[in-house]
Each structure stands twice: as structure tokens, then as C-alpha cells.
Design a protein that fits this description.
Length: 574
């Protein structure tokens, strides 16, 4: 009877615990925002997260933007964070990419909400995760401002067109809807035509197909300074993801006066350079080298200034790419890197593995088979007689792909239908305002980020398991008589990835693998070096060391590097 009462009590306690976990998880889900947040809301959210998880999370500011907004760093780790190999997640460098910021914060929330799971517990026990969710908070404030437009620049007053005046040609909301989209003007000198696949979208006319342009395509606004350019000098100045040091686009709109001129840029770079334990960087932004790894180009590597990924690093990045795609990331768009961005600077100048992805993209929507056949037949029949007001475009056109998905999901606020207006710069021409709504293409309704965030948490946990791990193996001692001893060991990388990126040895910034011998009083080294440095160890690779030591007592050997961790072994000489 007593045993039955104990079992009943245990069952009740188990159900109570399960119910409590369920309530906590329900509360966590309910606490998720229903829309993208401004800086003040994100700050409160991060502070609450760090406060509720003080044993595993720490929030600090690593700098301030031009608009004096804090650039937050959230550190997730159990124990001393700086002493463990780390991954850095950076987002919001491209100010118009709100989805990356939201995913970065959600990843941190999900990791902390799942610390009881073995993979997450091991991640925080053995690694450090740094999260900088909004590097460019000034630009991201435009989401909640009016008129709303996709802003990439910080809050610096800047003479973009270098005419001696500031902010004299901003956007104007010509149709009064609170959004800045596009203006299309019917003009014989225009170079754009509606796509035959999706007439709402304008594409470049293709003369090789007998197409003649019909429209001028401009951003929504007027030519305030009458210089022939539209909206070229609005509020805000430097595009942070054009302001980094690698392949800096000098004298380019938005790139700033010089590389790393902006406090946002320097804050992120200073943190990266001062954190030697960062093994790899994951950037959320409108570029992609993760679902498809970079290609090796010998010509770009065999030069004084390296501009291509080394062969060893390409092999490692291909391995990570396979891991990423295995978690369900497929049909990702091709999104090339841009000049002066952070992702390339982290690799070429800081020597870290660097991966970048938008995190979310509009899934492909396949047309029904019968519809596809009809479309192919129609296209074939009209190839030679295509109207000059239409054009074909590839299925990979990202705007068309997005609209197909949005139509399928019945999203109603992502496209502004073309509507005729009176444009003061084109009084005798038909002008219409419309196009994809600002932010829409890169930033879906927030509910669509839930699934991809879960996948990225799995990716980070899986990547952490593949990271390098230095161990000391095959440690042996041999007594040679007369107080002499030979100590031999191997330093092994037990991880599935190199101890650090190969380019780290080329740029000489990343710390090498150091194997150091610590002697007791009365001991001396007769053969071998006290400190041995060597380049990166590949997965499964080892290096053997041997010393001839005079004396007795304890000898300590320490081996490793910040990006792969340190291993310690002791041996007593008798």
C-alpha cells in the first residue's frame, strides 16, 4: 500500500512538472512579438532575457550608433565565456533586413528555453555563443517611422551627392499611403517593360528578343534639387555593410568617407578582433555563401592581396554547407556578396570562417502541371510576335518568386497596386506609383520565421559539435637514467573541422596552436623547445612533440588555441 502511495505521489509530481513546463513554454510563445520591433522594444526584450537567465546570459553594449543607440551584445555560455571556443551571430548590419535581427534574438530565446536538452546543454557547457542582433539600429528605426522606406544608412547627416547641401532630396510619399515604393513613367526613352510572367513587375527590356523599353523606373519622390537624379540625398548617411575594410568601395554612395569610418563598424570589428576565441561568424543578411559554399579560385589566392577563399577553407565550408542543407534549407536564392561587407571582412581580414545567409527566403511556388504546359505553349506561340510592352524573365527573378509565394499565402499588404498620379517632374506623361512594399521581400510576416529559427538553432548546435577540439594523447615517459627522462606526446584535433581557418595563417592574426611545457623547480629542458607553435590542425590531424628533461617531479603540458580550446596533461618524473 505504501509503495502504491509513493508511485501515485511520483506520478502526480511528474504531471505537475510537465504542466509547469507546458505553462512556461506557452508563456514564452505568447511573449513573442507579433511584428518587428523598434530599438526600445528590442532593448527591453534583451534585458528581460538576460535578467531571467543570469547564470547563462550576459547583456552588454559594445558601442553606440551615430544616433546614440546602444549596439547590444548578448553572450550565452556556462562558465567563463572568453576561455571557450565561440561562434558569433551578427545581424541587422543591413538595416533593411529586420528578419535577421528577429531570428538572432529568437535563436537566443529558444536556446535558453531549451537548456535541458542535451545538445543545447553541451553547446553552452563547451562553447560560447555571441549574438549581436542589431548592428545598425539607426536604419532599423525606419520600420516604425513614416513614411516607411527600406533604409540601409545610419543617422549621420551626410552629403551623399557631394553638392555642399545636406538631405535636400529625400523621398516623398506621392500617393499618400505612408509607404515609399516606385514610380513608373511611360516614356520612349525608358528601358523597362512589364514581365510577361508577372506583369506587376518591371524588368529590363531585352533588345536581343526584339523588346523595346516602355517605362522609366524611379524611386517614389521628386527631383527637389533639379539635378536629374531622384531621392539621391535623403536623411541618413552611411550604409554600414558597405563600410567594412575588405574590398571597401571607395567613392561609392553610402560607403562613407573611408573604411570603418562609422562607430557601428568599429564596434563590431573591435569586438571581433579582441575576441580571439571566435572560431566562426554567422551573418544574417541579404547575401548567401552557406547553402552553396564558395568556389576555389587559384588566381585569387596566389597573389599578395588574397581575394579568394583558400582550398582548405573551401573544403571546410563545403562540409558546413552540407550540414546546413541537411537541416532543410533548400532552394535558397543566389545572393552574391557585396563590396565592403562584414561577412567578407571577417574572413579575409580577421581570419575567421565566415558564413552568411538571409535565413529566410520566399519558397518556390510550383505552378500546376496543366498550367505550366499551357504557359509553355503560349510562350512558344508568341515568341516571334511578342509585344514591345512585355518581356520574359527567368523563374529565379526574386521579385516574381516572392509575389508568387505571397499570392499563395494570400498576403494582401506586400504589394502596392500601380495607381496613376500627377508627377510634377513629368507633367505631360503618365506616371504611376506602386511596387513591392518596403521591407516586404526580405522580411515576411513574423510568424513565418518560427520554423526557420528552429532550424538555425539546430544548425548552430550541430556546427558546435563539429568544431575543433584539441586533446593531448599518447603521453608517455621514459627513464633514461641519471635523472634524465624523455616525454613524448601527440597534440590531436578530435573535431570534424580545422582548428581555425587556413587564411588565419596567411594574415597572421589568428593565434596559432601553442604547446607549452611547464617545469617544476630543479627541472631543465635538455632537448626540445619549451614553447612550440604550429599552423592549423586539420580534422583528425596530430603533431608529435618530444622533450629530454633533467630532474624529477611534476611536469605540466598545455596545448591548444583560443578557437579550439586548451588541453592540459600532467606527468610525474621519478
Amino acid at each position: 500500500m505504501a509503495q502504491q502511495l509513493i508511485l501515485t505521489h511520483m506520478k502526480e509530481q511528474s504531471l505537475l512538472a510537465a504542466g509547469l513546463v507546458g505553462l512556461l513554454w506557452t508563456f514564452f510563445l505568447q511573449a513573442q512579438p507579433s511584428s518587428y520591433q523598434n530599438h526600445e522594444q528590442r532593448t527591453a526584450r534583451l534585458r528581460n532575457l538576460a535578467s531571467a537567465n543570469s547564470a547563462l546570459a550576459r547583456l552588454q553594449s559594445i558601442g553606440k550608433s551615430r544616433g546614440q543607440r546602444d549596439i547590444w551584445l548578448l553572450t550565452l555560455s556556462k562558465g567563463e565565456a572568453s576561455k571557450k571556443p565561440a561562434l558569433l551571430i551578427a545581424a541587422g548590419i543591413e538595416g533593411a533586413h529586420l528578419a535577421g535581427t528577429e531570428m538572432a534574438i529568437r535563436m537566443a530565446e529558444k536556446i535558453l528555453a531549451n537548456v535541458s536538452k542535451d545538445s543545447i546543454a553541451k553547446l553552452l557547457e563547451t562553447k560560447t555563443l555571441y549574438v549581436v542582433p542589431s548592428v545598425n539600429p539607426d536604419a532599423q528605426e525606419q520600420w516604425s517611422a513614416r513614411p516607411r522606406y527600406a533604409r540601409s544608412e545610419n543617422a549621420l547627416d551626410y552629403d551623399n551627392d557631394r553638392d555642399g547641401r545636406l538631405n535636400e532630396d529625400p523621398f516623398e510619399d506621392l500617393n499618400g499611403d505612408g509607404l515609399i515604393t516606385m514610380v513608373r513613367v511611360e516614356d520612349p526613352s525608358g528601358t523597362f517593360v512589364p514581365s510577361s510572367e508577372e506583369p506587376r513587375i518591371l524588368v529590363k527590356a531585352d533588345p536581343t528578343k526584339g523588346e523595346v523599353g516602355k517605362y522609366l523606373l524611379l524611386t517614389e519622390g521628386i527631383d527637389n534639387d533639379k539635378d536629374g537624379n531622384f531621392n539621391e540625398d535623403g536623411a541618413g548617411g552611411v550604409h554600414i555593410d558597405k563600410n567594412f575594410t575588405f574590398d571597401y568601395p571607395i567613392f561609392t554612395d553610402g560607403s562613407g568617407d573611408y573604411a570603418a569610418s562609422e562607430p557601428e563598424t568599429r564596434a563590431l570589428l573591435d569586438f571581433l578582433y579582441n575576441s580571439p576565441n571566435i572560431f566562426a561568424v554567422l551573418t544574417f543578411g541579404p547575401a548567401n555563401n552557406l547553402s552553396e559554399a564558395p568556389k576555389f579560385d587559384q588566381a585569387k589566392v596566389n597573389r599578395r592581396v588574397i581575394t579568394g577563399f583558400t582550398q582548405k577553407d573551401v573544403s571546410a565550408m563545403e562540409q558546413v554547407s552540407k550540414l546546413y542543407n541537411s537541416l532543410g534549407f533548400k532552394e535558397a536564392p543566389s545572393m552574391p556578396q557585396t563590396k565592403g561587407n562584414f561577412a567578407q571582412t571577417a574572413y579575409f581580414h580577421a581570419g575567421r570562417f565566415s558564413f552568411t545567409t538571409p535565413g529566410w527566403w520566399a519558397p518556390k511556388v510550383e505552378a500546376p502541371k496543366d498550367t505550366t504546359k499551357k504557359a509553355e505553349a503560349t510562350a512558344s506561340a508568341t515568341t516571334s510576335t511578342r509585344s514591345t510592352a512585355t518581356s520574359t524573365t527567368t523563374p529565379e527573378n526574386d521579385e516574381i518568386r516572392f509575389l508568387k509565394w505571397a499570392d499563395k499565402e494570400q498576403l494582401t499588404d506586400v504589394f502596392v497596386q500601380w495607381k496613376e498620379i500627377r508627377h510634377p517632374d513629368f507633367p505631360d506623361k503618365k506616371a504611376e506609383v506602386g511596387g513591392i512594399a518596403p521591407y516586404a521581400k526580405l522580411n515576411p510576416p513574423i510568424k513565418y520565421l518560427e520554423e526557420t529559427t528552429d532550424k538555425h538553432v539546430k544548425f548552430i548546435a550541430s556546427l558546435a559539435m563539429q568544431m575543433p577540439q584539441v586533446e593531448i594523447v599518447n603521453l608517455s615517459t621514459e627513464s633514461l637514467g641519471n635523472g634524465l627522462h624523455r616525454v613524448t606526446l601527440k597534440v590531436l584535433n578530435k573535431g570534424l573541422l580545422p582548428t581555425y581557418a587556413d587564411i588565419g595563417d596567411r594574415i597572421r592574426w589568428v593565434k596559432k596552436i601553442k604547446t607549452e611545457l611547464f617545469l617544476a623547480n630543479g627541472q631543465s629542458i635538455l632537448a626540445g623547445k619549451k614553447i612550440n607553435l604550429r599552423n592549423a590542425l586539420a580534422a583528425g590531424e596530430s603533431e608529435e612533440y618530444s622533450w629530454l628533461i633533467s630532474g624529477s617531479g611534476k611536469v605540466t603540458i598545455q596545448a591548444g588555441c583560443p578557437t579550439a580550446g586548451m588541453a592540459t596533461a600532467e606527468v610525474t618524473l621519478r
